């Protein structure tokens, strides 16, 4: 758990640093939304890392008590997870408006998209705050973690809807609407320019990449979903949080790798930086003539 979370933190920081250090090459509204997703991924990875470290330290010391930050860590876990999911929903909505409402420039401005990001952040912090203020986040002795007990049906449905269901429904709905739009312009190709069709198909490919990222998260979060449904009828296994969080931690790394792969500007800058670093290392090493001179001297 610690290894995967730490790797995701390093990859997220690398992505953000590349964008900050090369603003001209990465200056666009879509990259701003991608950076928001990367920042959310970084915060979620840090949250998972802090919980993993707390669990590990308590296991090593054989302690069975929670520290004063345990409840807050659980709260941040729900907040950052929601931020991550909604960040992909924001990307999907932007891609849809960019294709369908391309004539309305207001939808494609930095200010409006930044406003949407701000609203989502406020919503995520406030929606999870209900759990902490109502003292629903409890310390689980067996799993050494502070989470909402799965047997709390009403609050479980509430947080499940806010954190997981709503953003996934938004993404799927946007994907469905964009497919219908592409079919319509394909059938009415006589009244639609070829450039418009090609542009729409490109944005469809980008949206498919967002679906891939979300699919990775859903697949690796499947054990948690299984335990979530089991808790409706009976008690889940003893170490259900440890098992489900392990799969969540594993998913963080492939998501960040996919972000690098899907963002051509950032990927090209990273590859060039690695190539330059390797060339400098090779040049700084001793040449063949230097090695012969050293051998003759000896």
TrEMBL record:
Keywords: Cell membrane, G-protein coupled receptor, Membrane, Receptor, Signal, Transducer, Transmembrane, Transmembrane helix
Signal peptide: 1-28
Gene Ontology molecular function: G protein-coupled receptor activity
Membrane topology: Multi-pass membrane protein
Protein localization: Cell membrane
Transmembrane residue ranges: 42-59, 114-134, 154-176, 210-231, 243-262
Main location: membrane
Pfam families xref list: 7tm_1
Cellular component aspect of the GO annotation: plasma membrane
Domain G-protein coupled receptors family 1 profile: 11-271
Gene3D superfamilies (UniProt xref): Rhodopsin 7-helix transmembrane proteins
The protein, known as: G-protein coupled receptors family 1 profile domain-containing protein
Organism: Didymodactylos carnosus
């Amino acid at each position: 758990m610690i290894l995967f979370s730490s790797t995701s933190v390093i990859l997220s920081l690398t992505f953000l640093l590349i964008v900050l250090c090369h603003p001209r090459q990465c200056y666009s509204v879509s990259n701003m939304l991608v950076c928001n997703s990367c920042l959310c991924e970084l915060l979620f990875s840090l949250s998972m890392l802090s919980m993993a470290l707390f669990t590990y330290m308590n296991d090593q010391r054989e302690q069975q008590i929670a520290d004063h930050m345990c409840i807050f860590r659980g709260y941040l876990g729900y907040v950052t997870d929601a931020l991550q999911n909604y960040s992909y929903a924001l990307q999907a909505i932007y891609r849809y408006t960019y294709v369908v409402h391309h004539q309305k420039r207001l939808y494609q401005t930095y200010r409006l998209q930044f406003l949407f990001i701000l609203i989502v952040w406020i919503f995520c912090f406030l929606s999870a705050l209900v759990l902490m203020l109502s003292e629903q986040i409890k310390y689980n002795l067996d799993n050494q973690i502070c989470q909402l007990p799965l047997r709390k049906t009403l609050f479980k449905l509430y947080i499940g809807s806010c954190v997981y269901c709503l953003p996934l429904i938004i993404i799927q709905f946007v994907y469905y609407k964009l497919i219908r739009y592409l079919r319509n312009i394909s059938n009415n190709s006589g009244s639609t320019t070829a450039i418009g069709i090609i542009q729409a198909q490109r944005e469809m490919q980008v949206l498919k990449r967002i679906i891939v990222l979300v699919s990775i998260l859903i697949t690796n979060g499947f054990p948690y979903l299984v335990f979530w449904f089991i808790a409706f009828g009976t008690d889940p296994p003893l170490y259900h949080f440890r098992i489900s969080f392990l799969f969540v931690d594993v998913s963080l790394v492939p998501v960040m790798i996919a972000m690098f792969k899907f963002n051509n500007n950032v990927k090209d800058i990273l590859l060039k930086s690695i190539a330059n670093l390797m060339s400098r290392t090779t040049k700084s090493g001793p040449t063949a003539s230097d090695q012969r001179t050293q051998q003759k001297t000896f």
